[in-house]
Structure formats: C-alpha cells, structure tokens
C-alpha cells in the first residue's frame, strides 16, 4: 500500500517483537497449591510440585527417560493400521484430527512402545501419550499394545503398561471397542509366558482403557492423585443425582477401596518397579553371608514411609532399593511433601546406587 | 403395540384396521376384503420402512420396549432353566441373569443382560445396566461352565454398565476387564448374540465369543449416539448424526468383520413377532454350536483369541 504500512510498521514490529520472544511458559503454577515453579525446576522435579507434592501430568517421553537406565531405550514403531476405516466425521474430519495430533506430537499415534534396561533388567514399556488425542485407544494403539506383548514374550521380559487415556477412540467406533478384547488377549500372552504384567496408572485412566488393560495387572501401581475410573464423574452425578465424595476416583480412593496395590510417588516409581520385577522373576538371590537372609522389613508404623533394608547386603548384586510403605490414609500428604533430597538422605547407603540410577536427567 | 415415530403411517393403517374390525363386529358388515387390502398395505409399508432404516431408527428399534429381552429368550429356548445368583463376594445383580439349562438337548450355561419389560421389572433389573457384581457372577458362571465342559451362550442387551458411585468403588472397570478376559480364556465354546443394544464395555464383557451374532436391527457401539454427540458435537441433539458416523448397525459390523452373522428379524422387527425372532436366534446358536462342540478346548480358546486379533487386520481398506 504505502511506505508506512509496508516498510515502517514491519520494522517496528521486528524491533518490538524481539521482546516478545521471551516464552510465556517459563513459570508454571501448581493447580493444587498455586505455587509458582520455574520450568527447569519443575522438569527436574519430574513435574511434581516442589511445594505440595502434586503430581502434574508427565509427558510420555519424560517418563520413559525417567524409567529406563540412563534414559536410553529402544522403540518399536507402531504397526501400520488402516487409517479412518469408518470415514468418521463429526464437526471435524477424523483424518484431520489425526493429522493435527501427528504433527503436534511427531508421533504416528497415541502409544509409545519401548524396551530397555530398568536397573539392569530388560523390560518392555507400553506408555500412552495423553497429548495424542487424549491417549484414546484405537486400532493403532491396540495393535501397538499387541506388538509390545509380543516383544515382551520374545525378550522374556516383563511388560509394563502405563495408561494415560480418556478411553476408547470414538472416531473408530466399534473397532475401538474391539481393542478392549484385543489388548486383553495381548495381556494374556504375557501372562501365559509366565512373565509379569505390571500397570502404572497415571492421570487420567478412564473408560475402555481402564476396563481392559489397566485393570488386569499382576501388580497395579497408581501415581498420587491420578483420576482412575470407568465412567466419568459428571455422568455418574447425573445418573445418581448426588454429589460425589471428595477424592472420588483418585488413586488414594482406589487404594482405600482395594482397587490398586499401592500409590507410589514419581521419584520412587522406578525403584519400586525394579524391585517388584526382581521379586517376581528372581526367586532366589545369592546371599553374601550365610547367617541370615537379606530381609526387608517394612516398618508398619504409620507415617514411616521408607525403610532401609536390614541385614547384610550383597555388594556384587543390585542393592535393594528403598522400600515403600504406604499407609492407606489421608495423613499421607505430609509425607509426600518431603522433597527428593530428604528422601535420598533417608534411603541410606545400601540404596544409594539405585537412588542415583533412579534420577536420570529428566530431559533425554 | 407401541409405535415408533417413523412408524406413524403404519400405526394409522393399523388403527384403521382395528376400527373396521370394531365396526364390523357391531354392524355385521362384511369388512374382510377391506381389512385384507389394508393388511397388505401395512405389510408393504413395513417392508419399505424396515428395508431402509437409518442407524438412528435402528437405535430406536433396538431399544423398543416390546422387543423380546433376555429372559424371554431363555424361556423360549432353554429347557430346565435353573437360574443361579450372586457373585459370592458382595451381592446378586439382577441386571445380569444367568444359569444352567438345556438348549436343544445340550446342557449349557446361559448369561445375559435383562432390561425388564415394565416399571417394576425394569427397576428390579436396573434397566439392564449391570454393576460389578453382575460381571463377577458372569465370570463365576463361565468358569463353572468350563469346569463341566458346557458351552456358554450369552444374550447381550444393555445400554452399558451402570455408572454409579458404588459401582466405581467396587471396581466396575476391573469387573468388566476380568469378564472380557474370562470370555477370551474359556476352553469351552462361547457364542454371543447381540439381541438389542450392545452398549460399549458393558456389552463386550459378555460378548468376547468364538462367534458373535447380531439381530438384524440390533446395534453395537463403543458409545451411545447420544453420548457421542454430546462429546464430539457438544450437543445432545446431534445423536442422529452420531448414529450415522459410528457405524453401529449389524450390517456395518458385518462389513467391518466384527460379527460373524446377522440373524434375520421378522418383518417389522423382533417386537412384531418375538417368537419368530427368538427361534431364529435359536437356530443360529444351534448351527454354530454344532461346529464348535467337536473342537478341543485348546483349539476353541486359540481360535477365539485369533478371531479378535484378526479384527481390523483384514478386510478394511
């Protein structure tokens, strides 16, 4: 148009624009306590609020880096499946939603299948990516989960499923419902092979994913405060016309109702997984001194959450990681507030090695 | 007979017939010819209407209150039916009925969701929406069937598992997951038939069979059209569009390779001639059972698992 709009204004914009380059997401506000946390600090804390211990959603790749030794793992690509078999269209085409999610996440669908060592022992992990269409389970996710189970059997390794999903992917209609049966077949492949199947329930685990692979674990571990359920809370309230209790469908509530084995904070998740796997797959461990076997005695006094292994420990073998004793009470909050350094100190020498391995840099 | 919205022309014709009959009785008029003519018209109308039901219309037919429900099928098809109750841990859930019986000579375990047919029975059966206890009872019965080498027949008809506080607390998701797992694990034949509504996880928990049959106007879906519309369209009145998009009819499911066979319904839907519909289901059960019974337990289990793994791998473009 003219010199002003074509030349001067862009120049100004460039000049002023430089100040806008400061990203506005440097600080995160904890949704529970309102504490402001610098993003680097938050990543270092694995997205656990340093003030109140609230567990925010952890991006799936951060989680994998956190679980595998040195944050390194191999991936199996998701098997190819027919895209949009129903030619589904709501207000938007399903193919467009898929493309959006693919370009946003740089992944082909909502499941990452990885394998690698966890405290030295190979495990296969099938982790849902909540950022990909709410971690919904369609054919690609189902097929990926089957591939994960097959890989576990091939490697003679445990399978760890980490759901974070709104449920079945509606846009694939009945074919997404069929995944509930298909992933169940996959779970049983692992079980038939005598291998452990462990589920780590993270926020949120709902719908058809809960009602299939998430509830079939030999061991079910939940992250603190995660929403875990079948029907949505709003649907339930509308059906029964009453207010739901505080904490309904949260991990601690499920623990209280006997639906999960334990609620494990993020910073001890790896150690717990490794210990459970060892206990399930190594029936007898060599003992250094012949007097007494290594006994891990969880101290059942309320409030005591960690206990050091007592008795002799074989130096040549992996030491026992710190033991989690989680009282199923609400008075747990104070304990959860303890910061990571405090925990490290309390775990003692014998667990130091595993604790160190437990804390890879969150950025992989 | 209760008529659905799209059956209005049929309702009008049938009203006329009833009126004529009433008049005829009173005046001694000869109305036979006129009635026969109208009857023919009704039939033609039914034929054209039911030959091209939309998915949304089918949803209504599948939920028709006069449609035969589980217990009627059991009464018609199963001799010596012996209902069994309870999950042995918490309660008896009458949304799922099940028990022992004899189907055309063969001892079987039969399990299904019962919706009820009047206010009292609907409340008693919780409108066919099971709680975890129902699915745990189902698992118990399936395991017992396996122990005694009896085939399992399931009749699927539910809007979905009950969304309630207690149901969640007692592990609705776990109960459904284990029930599906049990279906898939059995070393005896399991034949499922969706007779009305196959509502999501609450349905597949009883429908992970060697053979899955579906009545011609039944529906089977991952979510109800209403639920889907409210989530994806953010408006409950787009249910009709959602029903189209979800591809939930028996015809769609056969194309997608999710079911083995469509059981034909009598003209105008199962509710117009329940006996014919139920007998057609019986005939299909018998035929598939005859094929499955000679197989060994391991083969039966392996084939069922292979069946589900194959879904989506072939036949979709």
Molecular structure report:
The complex is a heterodimer of chains A (364) and B (317). Chain A has 364 residues and is an alpha/beta fold. Among the domains of chain A are: 26-56, no CATH class; 58-280, 2-enoyl-CoA Hydratase, Chain A, domain 1, CATH 3.90.226.10. Chain A contains 13 helices and eleven strands. In chain A, the strands form three sheets. Chain A has a seven-stranded mixed β-sheet, sandwiched between helices. A two-stranded antiparallel sheet of chain A has the order 1-2. In chain A, helix 6 links the parallel strand 6 and strand 7 (197-201). Chain B has 317 residues and is α/β, with parallel strands linked by helices. In chain B, 51% of the residues lie in helices and 15% in strands. Chain B has 14 helices and eight strands. In chain B, strands 1, 2, 3, 4, 5, 6, 7 and 8 form an eight-stranded mixed β-sheet that branches. The longest helix of chain B has 20 residues, at 8-27. Chains A and B meet through helix 5, helix 6, helix 7 and helix 8 of A and helix 7, helix 8, helix 9, helix 10 and helix 11 of B. Chain B: Keywords: ATP-binding, Cytoplasm, Fatty acid biosynthesis, Fatty acid metabolism, Ligase, Lipid biosynthesis, Lipid metabolism, Nucleotide-binding, Transferase. Chain B: One of its GO terms (biological process) is fatty acid biosynthetic process. Chain B: Residues 37-291 form the CoA carboxyltransferase C-terminal domain. Chain B: It is found in: Cytoplasm.
Provide keyphrases for this structure.
heterodimer, A: 364 residues, alpha/beta, 2-enoyl-CoA Hydratase, Chain A, domain 1, 7-stranded mixed beta sheet, two-stranded antiparallel ribbon, globular, disordered C terminus, B: 317 residues, 2 domains, 8-stranded mixed beta sheet, 8 strands
Topology:
The complex is a heterodimer of chains A (364) and B (317).
Chain A: H1 3-20, E1 27-29, E2 36-38, H2 39-44, H3 60-67, E3 74-76, H4 94-105, E4 111-118, E5 121-128, H5 139-155, E6 159-162, H6 173-192, E7 197-201, H7 207-210, E8 219-222, H8 233-240, H9 251-256, E9 262-263, H10 269-281, E10 306-307, E11 323-324, H11 333-337, H12 340-347, H13 352-357
Parallel strand pairs in A: 5-6, 6-7, 7-8, 8-9
Antiparallel strand pairs in A: 1-2, 3-4, 4-5, 10-11
Chain B: H1 8-27, H2 32-51, H3 55-62, H4 70-77, E1 79-83, E2 96-103, E3 106-113, H5 119-124, H6 132-147, E4 152-158, H7 165-169, H8 172-185, E5 190-199, H9 200-207, E6 211-215, E7 219-221, H10 225-233, H11 239-246, H12 250-255, E8 261-263, H13 274-292, H14 297-310
Parallel strand pairs in B: 3-4, 4-5, 5-6, 5-7, 6-8
Antiparallel strand pairs in B: 1-2, 2-3
Helix pairs in contact in B: 1-2, 4-13, 6-8, 8-9, 10-11
């Amino acid at each position: 148009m003219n010199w002003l709009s074509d030349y001067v204004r862009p120049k100004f914009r460039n000049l002023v624009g430089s100040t806008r380059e400061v990203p506005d997401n440097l600080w995160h506000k904890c949704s529970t306590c309102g504490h402001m946390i610098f993003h680097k600090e938050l990543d270092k804390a694995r997205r656990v609020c340093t003030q109140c211990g609230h567990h925010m959603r952890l991006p799936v790749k951060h989680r994998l880096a956190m679980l595998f030794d040195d944050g390194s793992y191999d991936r199996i690509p998701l098997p190819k499946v027919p895209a949009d078999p129903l030619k589904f269209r709501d207000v938007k085409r399903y193919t467009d939603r898929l493309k959006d999610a693919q370009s946003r996440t740089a992944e082909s669908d909502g499941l990452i299948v990885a394998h690698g060592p966890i405290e030295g022992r190979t495990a296969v992990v099938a982790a849902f990516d909540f950022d990909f269409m709410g971690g919904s389970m369609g054919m690609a996710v189902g097929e990926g989960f089957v591939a994960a189970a097959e890989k576990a059997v091939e490697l003679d390794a445990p399978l760890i499923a980490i759901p974070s999903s709104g449920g079945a992917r509606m846009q694939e209609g009945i074919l997404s419902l069929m995944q509930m049966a298909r992933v169940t077949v996959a779970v049983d492949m692992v079980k038939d092979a005598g291998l452990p199947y462990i589920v780590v329930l993270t926020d949120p685990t709902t719908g058809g994913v809960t009602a299939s692979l998430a509830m079939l674990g030999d061991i079910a571990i939940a992250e603190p405060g995660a929403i875990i359920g079948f029907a949505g809370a709003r649907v339930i309230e509308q059906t029964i016309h009453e207010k739901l209790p505080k904490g309904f469908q949260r991990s601690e509530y499920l623990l209280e109702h006997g639906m999960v084995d334990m609620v494990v904070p993020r910073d001890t998740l790896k150690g717990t997984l490794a210990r459970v796997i060892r206990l399930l797959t190594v029936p007898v461990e060599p003992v250094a001194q012949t007097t007494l076997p290594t006994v891990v005695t969880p101290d059942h006094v309320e409030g005591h959450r960690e206990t050091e292994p007592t008795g002799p420990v074989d130096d040549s073998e992996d030491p026992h990681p710190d033991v989690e004793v989680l009282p199923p009470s609400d008075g747990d909050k104070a304990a959860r507030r303890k910061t990571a350094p405090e925990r490290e100190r309390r775990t003692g020498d014998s667990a130091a090695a595993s604790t160190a391995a437990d804390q890879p840099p969150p950025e992989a | 007979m209760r008529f659905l919205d799209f059956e209005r022309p049929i309702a009008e014709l049938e009203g006329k017939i009833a009126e004529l009959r009433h008049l005829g009785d009173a005046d001694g008029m000869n109305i036979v010819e006129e009635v026969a003519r109208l009857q023919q018209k009704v039939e033609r109308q039914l034929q054209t209407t039911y030959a091209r039901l939309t998915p949304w219309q089918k949803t209504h037919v599948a939920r028709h209150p006069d449609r035969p429900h589980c217990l009627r099928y059991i009464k018609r098809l199963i001799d010596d039916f012996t209902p069994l109750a309870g999950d042995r841990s918490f309660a008896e859930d009458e949304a799922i009925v099940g028990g022992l019986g004899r189907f055309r000579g063969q001892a079987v375990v039969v399990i299904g969701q019962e919706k009820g047919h009047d206010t009292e029975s609907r409340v008693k059966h919780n409108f066919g929406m099971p709680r975890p206890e129902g699915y745990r009872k189902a698992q118990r019965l399936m395991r017992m069937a396996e122990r005694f080498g009896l085939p399992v027949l399931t009749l699927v008809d539910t809007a979905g598992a009950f969304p309630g506080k207690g149901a969640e607390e007692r592990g609705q998701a776990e109960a459904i997951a284990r029930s599906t797992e049990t279906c898939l694990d059995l070393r005896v034949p399991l034949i499922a038939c969706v007779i009305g509504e196959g509502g999501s996880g609450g349905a597949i928990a009883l429908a992970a069979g060697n053979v899955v049959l579906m009545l011609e106007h039944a529906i089977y879906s991952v979510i109800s059209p209403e639920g889907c519309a409210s989530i994806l369209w953010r408006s409950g009145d787009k249910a009709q569009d959602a029903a189209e998009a979800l591809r939930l009819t028996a015809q769609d499911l056969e194309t997608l390779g999710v079911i083995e066979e469509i059981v034909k319904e009598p003209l105008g839907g199962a509710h117009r001639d329940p006996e014919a519909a139920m007998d057609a289901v019986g005939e299909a059960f018998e035929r598939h059972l005859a094929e499955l019974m000679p197989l060994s337990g391991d083969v039966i289990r392996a084939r069922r698992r292979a069946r589900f793994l194959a879904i989506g791998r072939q036949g979709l473009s």
